[in-house]
Amino acid sequence: MYSLRYAVGTDPGLRREANEDSVHCGERLFAVADGMGGHAYGEVASSIAVAVLADLDVDADDPLTELAGATRQIAVRLTDLAEENPDMRGMGTTLTSLLWDGERFAVCHIGDSRCYLLREGQLSQVTRDHTMVQAMVDEGRMAAEQAAEHPGRSMLLRALQAGGEYDADLFFQDVLAGDRYLICSDGLSDVVAPSEIAELLAAEGDREQVVEALIAAANARGGPDNITCLLVDVLPA
């Protein structure tokens, strides 16, 4: 009924020496993880996340259950590493992934990486940020426009972390032919407004050019963080 095509790009940005983002692209699974923890341990955490998820890049009878099990396994592996090496105790990672079941996506999300959908020219945010400012927006204590500029907008309430919980959002996302999905780390979404992201996603050109343009837009605004963009198009079979 549908076929998938994708393009991906990742860039350290202009202010970071290392790139702690990790990404997976396969026939059925698409994921971005943004590591944290310093001393390159963020890179370790994000790479563990996508390595565990990569095992799901096959047919799954119950994709949401499979994704839930994977997040639990990631948390256990991070905790085991931190117990072996105390320097790793603060490491963790965000995770946003789409697992295709042939007709729709199973979504797994924790942290502040994002999944956007461009459908018929309209951009929507599929995932919800697990941040303090988003919680304040949800409670009516802050306007969305204020949240976008708040200096503490990257303060996470949930992530996959050594010794922590693994309470990811898990849900199905129905698709239509022509849908364009973008999974990105906050190196893009923190500095490029949704209106510009929508414009770039809708631009003519191949998928690789769109990804390059998104990364260039983030770097044009100072590139303060690592930038990863994974584009998935849903096409008629």
UniProtKB/TrEMBL annotation:
It comes from the Bacteria. InterPro entries: PP2C, PPM-type-like_dom_sf, PPM-type_phosphatase-like_dom. Residues 5-234 form the PPM-type phosphatase domain. Gene3D superfamilies: PPM-type phosphatase domain. This is PPM-type phosphatase domain-containing protein. PROSITE patterns: PPM_2. The lineage of its organism: Bacteria, Bacillati, Actinomycetota, Actinomycetes, Pseudonocardiales. It comes from Saccharothrix coeruleofusca. Transmembrane segments: none annotated. GO terms for molecular function: protein serine/threonine phosphatase activity.
